[in-house]
Amino acid sequence: MPATRKSATPTEDLASSDRPARAPRAPRNVRKAAATKLFVLDTNVLMHDPTSLYRFEEHDLYVPIMTLEELDNNKKGTSEVARNARQASRMLDEIVSTSDDGIAAGIALDAPSRGQATGRLHLQTEAIDIKLPPALPTARGDNQILAVVMYLAEKTPGRDVILVSKDINMRIKARALGLAAQDYFNDKVLEDTDLLYAGTRELPADFWDTHGRGMQSWKEDGRTYYRLAGPLAPEMLVNEFVYQDGDNPLQAWVKEKDGRSVVLETLTDFSHQKNNVWGITARNREQNFALNLLMNPEIDFVTLLGQAGTGKTLLTLAAGLTQVLESKRYSEIIMTRVTVPVGEDIGFLPGTEEEKMAPWMGALEDNLDVLNGTAGEGGDWGRAATRDLIRSRIKIKSLNFMRGRTFLNKYLIIDEAQNLTPKQMKTLITRAGPGTKVICMGNIAQIDTPYLTEGSSGLTFVVDRFKGWAHSGHITLQRGERSRLADYAADVL
Questions:
Q1: How far apart are CA 180 and CA 149, in angstroms?
Q2: Given a cut of 50, is residue 26 above it in pLDDT?
């Protein structure tokens, strides 16, 4: 990644209580120029999201000349930052080329944004000389942008001038100078990850009393179905799991939703040994829900969230091996993950694509050791043969070579998906061809990619966007099943 101010200021610890940049839209007939705000864009906002130029609705934007200079300095290379810098430059060129009247009075964004933004884009067209405090050298790009914000605040005293930056230190310096500054919020799927869809719903004790009137019940293919209506029915989503503990425990999921009525279907009990999946049984309620999603041929897309040790990879691999080697539903398992190191990188790796990916796939090998031990008795030779057979049906691929591919009849596992951006996630999921199942796994509390937060991670993005689709399902695994040491460490460390 090129050395930029952006890469030097990771925002994993970002916590801003400022007003979001996305202000409520005022009625057009009462909106006045003075009522709109003027947002000054820092370079890292454009390199984080090139489409941010169209995300401020009716408000005006100001791009300092130093922002353009830094975009130019960071456009070379194949990194995500360089690609975004080039895209931002192309979008600015497209906007400027639509202006027939010059750029001095600002360029209307209505036409180039196709109505998404109705404000104006202002580019710095004059030299600005503002006396900064002696501790802030004007040679630094950050401080030149702060000087522009100070100038605009003095020039338009009756208007809100706000610096938008993803650089925490930049915002702190702006506030120290008495300037308004805030983070860029528009890329966040959720402000609070506690609001993220969990995929499960506990039914209240009086559920059958309030929803039992006019209920229909029938059996089909060994499953029990309930059609019912009531106050909770409109809130439920298709493929959401519902459960009730007590004397008559229930575990079911919503298979149909029609207005104020839903159809519940009871689940296969994968906690019982007779329904084991490659020798693995569910150890808790959420694992049982997950196996129902992984083993259902009608579910094309599954997302599994959970902290370390909840069984995400083990359950996914067990379901994949069963459906590849036993039921022959899929031709092979393809596993990939983003290669973001936790500490220092280990440098270049020799060998083929699969050999280069091997150090990143320790989780795969660990889980194959467990699954190979459940393949039955056969002595050392039998276990070795089984391991070779299993390994021959699992392909490890790098994310770098995914664009343009189409996977037919494959079981695609995306591990550590919390480190993917929404754009990378879209690139991967759209590789799926007919008969392919995609499983995304991750823990949004362990994001290693700079500039990604829990709210803007690609995994959070797909969980929120796919909820309620008839061919997708999501489960947040709660209980750790790795070991008592791992569970205790997750709680106290």
A1: 9
A2: no
- Residue 473 host element (H or E): strand 472-477
- How far is C-alpha 300 from the chain's CA centre? 18
User: Dihedral of CA 334/340/346/348: which sign?
Assistant: positive
Helix (H) / strand (E) containing 208: helix 207-211
Structure-token pair, residue 323: 């459906």
CB 260 within 8 A of CB 493: no
- The count of other CB atoms within 10 Å of the CB of residue 493 is 5
Helix (H, G, I), strand (E, B) or coil at 289: helix
- List phi, psi (to 5°) of 6: -65, -45
Q: How many CB atoms lie within 10 A of CB 268?
A: 16
Residue 404 has pLDDT above 90, yes or no: no
Beta-bridged to residue 336, according to DSSP, are 414
Q: Which structure tokens are listed for 399?
A: 């994310």
Please work out, in degrees rounded to the nearest 5, the angle formed at the alpha carbon of residue 162 by the alpha carbons of 160 and 168: 155
**Structure tokens, 69:** 């200079």
Distance between the two ends of the chain, CA-based, in angstroms? 31
Structure tokens at 14: 């970002």
Q: What is the structure's pLDDT at 368?
A: 74
Q: Tell me which DSSP letter residue 98 carries.
A: T
CB 216 within 8 A of CB 227: yes
pLDDT in tens, 110-127: 888 888 888 888 888 888
3-class secondary-structure state, position 3? coil
Tokens of 3: 């050395």
Q: Which residues pair with 54 in a beta bridge?
A: none
Cα 449 to chain center, whole Å?
12
Do the beta carbons of residue 441 and residue 416 sit within 8 Å? yes
Rg of the chain over CA atoms, in angstroms? Answer: 27
